[in-house]
Amino acid sequence: MRRGARLPDRALPLLVLTAALSLLAACSDPVDPPPSAVPTQFPVLATPETGGSGTPPPTLGEADIERLLREAVCWYDDPALASLCLPPGEEAVAALETMAFSGDERFVAPLVDMLWLDAGWARFVTAALERLTGVRHPSPEAWYAWLADEQPALPPGYATWKGRLLGLIDPDFASLLNDGQLAAGGIGASALIWDRVEVDGYPPLDRPPVLLRAEQQYLAVSDVVFGVFLGDEVRAYPERVVAWHGVVRDEVGGVALTLVHCTPCGGVAAYAAFASDGQRYTLGNSGLVYHSRRLLYDQETHSLWDPVSGLAVAGPLATTGVSLQPLPVLRTSWGEWGQRHPNSGVLSLDTGFVRDYDAGVATGAEQAGASPQYPTPPVDPRLGAKTPVLGLTIGGEVRAYPVAAVESAGIVADTLGGQSIVLVSLGPGTGVTVYRADDVRFTGIGGTRDALELVDAEGLRWFMDERSLVNSRNSRVRESLPSRTAYWFAWSGAHPGTDVWTAP
After folding, report:
1. Are 359 and 225 in contact (CB under 8 A)?
2. pTM above 0.85, yes or no
3. Cα–Cα distance, 154 to 26 (Å, whole number)
4. How many helices (H) and strands (E) does the chain have?
5. Which residues lie across from 500 on neighbouring strands?
6. pLDDT of residue 35
7. Which of 36, 265, 397, 455 has the fewest CB atoms nearer than 10 Å to its CB?
8. Is the pLDDT of residue 397 over 80?
9. Where are the domains of the chain?
């Protein structure tokens, strides 16, 4: 695969292609044609009565279905030649006509995929879908939601065909999305939605340049940052930067890590570079979305990974039980983080990529919506779909803590997986840190922002930072525990059996 490109950015050719396809569609299908407009060479779909090429054979075998699907997208055996299929020609339209009048539901999912991609064939695909299903929907998103509810039968070789369809955008999709990849794992190809970018179209950052807190001049005190404190090193990852990239591969305090930001699922997680099997995996952005969670891939095996659960969900690693190992990370404001850590490092804007890193630009459109950005299954009704939660997994038990409720409480004592824990927040917008509590009951927060303390029931003070709590009398330590933040729909979708903490 082509990886690690900086400038020119791989997303730029895609933008040019998208603009060209949109212009093609606009020019060929005006919204309100004048009465004197010249009719097209053939109707949207030619029926047998009009003498068109859409007369279906008496029955369609698997070979017929495979042939029609290939003709619809002008299939080349070499995925690198896929772009030669654009713009679509009359052979593709003839294949769509045959699908429309076949009555075979196995064409429905591929047609929805084609409608989402829209390489200039939208009016033909829409007509074919409506003819096949007998229903009409206003948008590709609505068609995907309907597809998830109805679950029509899928054609043979569907995942491989879908990877080749996306090869019109980037031939690398063929190695990430195919029948061999999805044979192992629990996700179906029809639930995978293209994220409208190439593979690594959100380009990961590798060891990005870092400034000291006193050197940076672009952050406001209200800007969201994700703070990591490992070894003796402190670093802040501003959301306005990392949201453009999704993946940051870095090293802090001698620990190799991958910070993962999933804009559609409202989440962030820090994972050790070495997974549970002891192997190091180089993660990138797959360009695929599953239930509004942007999937990752690794360069070593091309397996697909869920950013919220940290599990491999497709590909060679999906059945091995391997998982990414979470590290503590704090979602807070730059003003709060800076007060706690005056000497913190922070990412520079000199990333090597041309992006608008102003606050809210990368996340504003998603955050403005009340519903998930991409179609998802019905959401667990215990919380609102986009309620921010902090997720914990301990001893095989999983629990979600509504962030606003914990920040309001300040100190929350709980037990999860047989482990006594304490969740600590300094108030709304400051984030939540989780520690082992063991035999200690904590009752209050004291000190100053750059020298925080917890007080236990015996009146003893515990020095507090994102790594641990340290007893001021005998230096007993209570380590911090990894947690992940996400919208409720994303956390509950990745952890269907999760509990929900409620204030007593």
Report:
1. no
2. yes
3. 31
4. 14, 27
5. 400
6. 37
7. 36
8. yes
9. 42-156, 205-368, 388-500
